[in-house]
C-alpha cells in the first residue's frame, strides 16, 4: 500500500488519536472543565477483579513472614545496585520517607497511602533520584506475596524494618493501604514548568516562609520539602530553618516532631554525590524503552556504592550509618562546621578538625575513612534557637529522642490512613492518637423509627435538616480520610463557627436534635444524618415518589478532647458548589472548586451532577439563595433543575456580577431564574450536559430520585470505616 503521509517514512496510524496529549480536548480548548480527576483510578485502569476485596486479602497475610523477608532483603546486596556498607537500610528509609513526605495537610493529598510514588510525576522528581532502584530491590517480596501486600504497604514497611534492623524500637505499623493504578491527576504540585525552578515562583515573599502558595508544602517543584543546600540553593541555616518550620507544619508536624524527624532520618544512611552528575541519565519517565522503567543511569558507578549519584550531596551524617544511635547529635554539636562543596559541586558542610579515627568508613572499602557532612537543613537544627533547644533535650535524654522519633515517624508514614479502623495487622498501636481524629464506638441498638418520628415532630424544615446533615458530612476528604459526619464534630469548635455552616441555623437545629439523641440512645452524629434522611424522604414524598433513604446506625460522638481544633481549620469549606456557597470571591472558578470538593468526597461526575441538581430544588442553597433553583416546586425532590436547564424556552445571559447569570423567557424577555457558573456548567460542558440530559428526560424522574439517594448515602457513609469489615 502506498504511504500517503507527507513525511518521508511517516506512519499512517493515529497512535491513540485523541488520547494523546497533542490532540486532547483541553489542548484545543484549555478553558474546558477537565473532569478527569473524578475518574482517575476507575474500572478502566484497575487490573484487579471486580469482586476483589483488599482488606480481606490483607488479613490473610502471614505478617511475620512478610517482615522477615523484608528484613532479609535489606542485607542481600545486589550486584546491579550494591548496598552502602552491605545494608539497604538508609535507602529504604529514604524510599519510605519520600513516599510519605509528599503529604500536605491543607488538602490531604500526597503521602504514602496509595503507592503514588510508582507513577509520574513523583517517580521522576529530582528529589526521588534512584528510588526506582529501591523499589526494584523490594520486587521479590512483592512478587512472593502478591495482591495482599500492596506497594504502598511494602514501601513503608521497608522503612520500618530498616530502622528495626538498625536498632530502633518502632512505635508500630499498620497494613491496609491500597494501591492506585495510575498518576493522581487531582494533585496540584505547582505551576512551574521546570524542575527545581526558583522558589520565588511559590512565595509572595521568599523572606516570609508562611507566604508559600497553598496547598503546597515543598519549596521547589520536584522536592519533597526544603532545598538541602539552602533557600534557593544559597546556604544560610538560620533562613533555612524558617522554611523548614513552615514546610513541616504543612506536613502536619510541630517543631519537636520536625527536629526528631530530621535527626532520626539522618542518623542512618548517606547522601550520594561523589562524582559529577554530568553523565547521569534522565529520569524514568524520560528514559528510553530499553531502560524498562529505570532512570538516572549512572555509567560511572563502576559497581561500587561510593560512586553512586543521587542528590549531588556526598557523605554520611554519622560514624555508624547502619546503626540507630545518637551519632547525628554527636557530630553536629561536638564539632564546628564550615561550608564546602561535594565532588559533584553541591553546597554542604564539613567538620573542622575531626580526627581521622572519628570519621565514618567508606561505603565500599572499610579501610578508607571519609569526611561526614551536614546539609543546610541539618545545620538549621543547631543554628535556630528553637530547634537547638529541642535537640539539647534529646541529647540529655536519648530514650526520649528515640520515642519521639518513633512516634513522629509513625505519624509521617500513617498520617493519610485516617482513623485506626483502617489499620490492619499485629503491630497497630493500641493508643488513640489525636491526629487520627479518634471517635468512640457508637450505639447501633436503638429504635431508628422512633428517632425519625421525633425528628419529624420538631417542625424543622426539610431544607434545614438536609443542609445540616450535608454540612456535617461534606468535610470528608478521601485524600487522607479525615472529616465527615462520624463524630458529629460539626457541633464542636471550630466547625460550629464556620461561616459556611450558617452558625445560627446550625445552633437552632442542633438544639432540637441533641435532646432526641439523649432520649433515644442514638449518637448525635447518627441523629444528624438521620435528620437529613427524614428531610429527604419528606421531599421525595412531596415529589410524588416513594423511595426509602438507607441508614446504618453506629456513628459515635467525639468530644473536644478528641479533637485537634487547629488541625481541623484546614477542613473548612471555602466553597461548596453543592450549596452554591463561596466564603469570598476567588480567582478560581466556582465550578472548579465544585470539582475539587466532589473529588475529595470520592464522587463520580454523574454523582456530582445528580447531587447538585437535587440540592438546588431542595432549597438547600447557602443563605437561601435562589441561584440555580430552577423549579416552581422548591422543597420537592424533582428533576426540575435539569428540565429547566435544558429547556430551549429560556436563554442564558451573564449579569454585571462576575459568575452570575439570568435565565430569561425567550418570548417575553422576563427573568425566570438566576444562576451561578456552577449551575450553568451542567449545560455548557459537553460531558456534564450528557448527564443532565439523562436526568431531564420524561422517563427518568424516578431514576433521578434513586440516583440522588444513592449518591447522598455514599456521602453520608464516606467515613464509616467501621462498616468495611
Low-confidence stretches: 1-8, 13-22
Number of strands: 9
Number of helices: 23
User: Given the helix and strand composition, which structural class is it?
Assistant: mainly alpha
Q: Mind telling me the C-alpha Rg?
A: 28 Å
What features would you describe in this structure?
With 725 residues, the protein is mainly alpha-helical. It contains 23 helices and nine strands. It has helices at residues 25-28, 54-59, 63-74, 89-100, 131-145, 151-165, 237-249, 255-265, 327-334, 376-383, 385-396, 398-414, 448-457, 462-473, 503-520, 524-542, 565-568, 590-600, 605-617, 640-645, 677-684, 686-696, 701-716, and strands at 270-271, 315-316, 337-341, 347-351, 575-576, 581-582, 650-654, 660-665, 671-676. The chain has a three-stranded antiparallel β-sheet with strand order 7-8-9. Strands 1-2 form a two-stranded antiparallel ribbon. A two-stranded antiparallel sheet has the order 3-4. A hairpin with a 5-residue loop joins β7 (650-654) and β8. α3 packs antiparallel against α5 (131-145), α7 packs across α10 (376-383) and α11 (385-396) crosses α12 (398-414). The longest helix is centred in the C-terminal third of the chain and has 19 residues, at 524-542. The protein is elongated and about 90 Å long.
Amino acid at each position: 500500500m502506498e504511504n500517503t503521509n507527507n513525511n518521508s517514512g511517516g506512519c499512517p496510524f493515529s497512535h491513540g488519536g485523541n488520547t494523546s496529549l497533542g490532540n486532547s480536548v483541553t489542548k484545543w480548548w484549555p478553558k474546558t472543565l477537565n473532569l478527569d480527576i473524578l475518574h482517575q483510578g476507575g474500572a478502566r485502569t484497575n487490573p484487579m477483579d471486580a469482586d476483589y476485596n483488599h482488606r480481606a486479602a490483607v488479613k490473610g497475610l502471614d505478617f511475620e513472614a512478610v517482615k522477615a523477608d523484608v528484613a532479609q532483603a535489606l542485607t542481600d546486596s545486589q550486584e546491579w545496585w550494591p548496598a552502602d556498607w552491605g545494608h539497604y537500610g538508609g535507602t529504604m528509609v529514604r524510599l519510605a520517607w519520600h513516599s510519605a513526605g509528599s503529604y500536605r495537610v491543607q488538602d490531604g493529598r500526597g503521602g504514602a497511602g496509595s503507592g503514588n510514588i510508582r507513577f509520574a510525576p513523583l517517580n521522576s522528581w529530582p528529589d526521588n533520584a534512584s528510588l526506582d532502584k529501591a523499589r526494584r530491590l523490594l520486587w521479590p517480596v512483592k512478587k512472593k506475596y502478591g495482591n495482599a501486600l500492596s506497594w504502598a504497604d511494602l514501601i513503608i514497611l521497608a522503612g520500618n524494618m530498616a530502622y528495626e534492623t538498625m536498632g530502633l524500637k518502632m512505635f508500630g505499623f499498620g497494613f491496609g493501604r491500597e494501591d492506585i493504578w495510575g498518576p493522581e491527576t487531582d494533585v496540584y504540585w505547582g505551576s512551574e514548568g521546570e524542575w527545581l525552578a526558583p522558589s520565588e515562583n511559590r512565595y509572595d515573599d521568599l523572606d516570609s516562609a508562611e507566604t508559600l502558595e497553598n496547598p503546597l508544602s515543598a519549596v521547589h517543584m520536584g522536592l519533597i520539602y526544603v532545598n538541602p543546600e539552602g533557600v534557593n540553593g544559597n546556604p544560610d541555616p538560620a533562613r533555612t530553618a524558617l522554611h523548614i518550620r513552615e514546610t513541616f507544619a504543612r506536613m502536619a508536624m510541630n517543631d519537636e516532631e520536625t527536629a526528631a524527624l530530621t535527626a532520626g532520618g539522618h542518623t542512618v544512611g548517606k547522601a550520594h554525590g561523589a562524582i559529577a552528575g554530568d553523565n547521569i541519565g534522565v529520569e524514568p519517565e524520560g528514559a528510553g524503552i530499553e531502560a524498562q522503567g529505570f532512570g538516572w543511569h549512572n555509567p560511572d558507578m563502576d559497581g561500587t556504592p561510593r560512586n553512586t549519584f543521587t542528590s549531588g550531596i556526598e557523605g554520611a551524617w554519622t560514624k555508624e550509618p547502619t546503626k540507630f544511635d545518637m551519632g547525628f547529635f554527636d557530630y553536629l554539636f561536638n564539632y564546628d562546621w564550615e561550608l564546602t562543596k561535594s565532588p559533584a559541586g553541591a553546597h554542604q558542610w564539613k567538620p573542622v578538625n575531626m580526627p581521622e579515627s572519628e570519621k565514618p568508613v567508606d561505603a565500599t572499602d572499610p579501610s578508607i575513612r571519609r569526611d561526614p557532612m551536614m546539609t543546610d537543613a541539618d545545620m538549621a537544627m543547631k543554628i535556630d534557637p528553637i530547634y537547638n533547644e529541642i535537640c539539647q533535650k534529646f541529647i540529655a535524654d536519648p530514650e526520649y529522642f528515640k520515642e519521639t522519633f518513633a512516634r513522629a515517624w509513625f505519624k509521617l508514614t500513617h498520617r493519610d490512613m485516617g482513623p485506626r479502623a483502617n489499620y490492619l495487622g499485629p503491630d497497630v498501636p493500641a493508643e488513640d492518637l489525636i491526629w487520627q481524629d479518634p471517635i468512640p464506638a457508637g450505639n447501633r441498638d436503638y429504635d431508628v423509627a422512633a428517632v425519625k418520628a421525633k425528628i419529624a415532630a420538631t417542625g424543622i424544615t426539610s431544607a434545614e435538616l438536609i443542609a445540616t446533615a450535608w454540612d456535617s458530612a461534606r468535610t470528608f476528604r478521601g485524600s487522607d480520610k479525615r472529616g465527615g459526619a462520624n463524630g458529629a464534630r460539626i457541633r464542636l469548635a471550630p466547625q460550629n463557627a464556620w461561616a459556611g455552616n450558617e452558625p445560627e441555623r446550625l445552633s437552632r437545629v442542633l438544639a432540637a436534635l441533641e435532646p432526641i439523641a439523649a432520649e433515644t440512645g442514638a449518637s448525635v452524629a447518627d441523629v444528624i444524618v438521620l435528620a437529613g434522611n427524614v428531610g429527604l424522604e419528606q421531599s421525595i414524598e412531596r415529589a410524588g415518589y416513594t423511595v426509602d433513604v438507607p441508614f446504618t446506625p453506629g456513628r459515635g460522638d467525639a468530644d473536644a478532647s478528641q479533637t485537634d481544633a487547629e488541625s481541623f481549620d484546614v477542613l473548612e469549606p471555602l466553597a461548596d458548589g453543592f450549596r452554591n456557597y463561596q466564603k469570598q470571591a476567588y480567582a478560581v472558578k466556582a465550578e472548579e472548586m465544585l470539582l475539587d470538593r466532589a473529588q475529595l468526597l470520592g464522587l463520580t461526575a454523574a454523582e456530582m451532577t445528580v447531587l447538585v441538581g437535587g440540592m438546588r430544588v431542595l432549597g438547600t442553597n447557602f443563605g437561601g439563595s435562589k441561584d440555580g433553583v430552577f423549579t416552581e416546586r422548591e422543597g420537592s425532590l424533582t428533576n426540575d433543575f435539569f428540565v429547566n436547564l435544558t429547556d430551549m424556552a429560556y436563554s442564558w445571559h451573564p449579569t454585571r456580577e462576575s459568575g452570575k447569570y439570568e435565565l430569561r423567557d425567550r418570548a417575553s424577555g422576563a427573568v425566570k431564574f438566576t444562576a451561578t457558573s456552577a449551575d450553568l456548567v451542567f449545560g455548557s460542558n459537553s460531558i456534564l450536559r450528557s448527564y443532565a440530559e439523562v436526568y431531564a428526560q420524561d422517563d427518568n424522574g424516578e431514576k433521578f430520585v434513586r440516583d440522588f439517594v444513592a449518591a447522598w448515602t455514599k456521602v453520608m457513609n464516606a467515613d464509616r470505616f467501621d462498616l468495611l469489615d
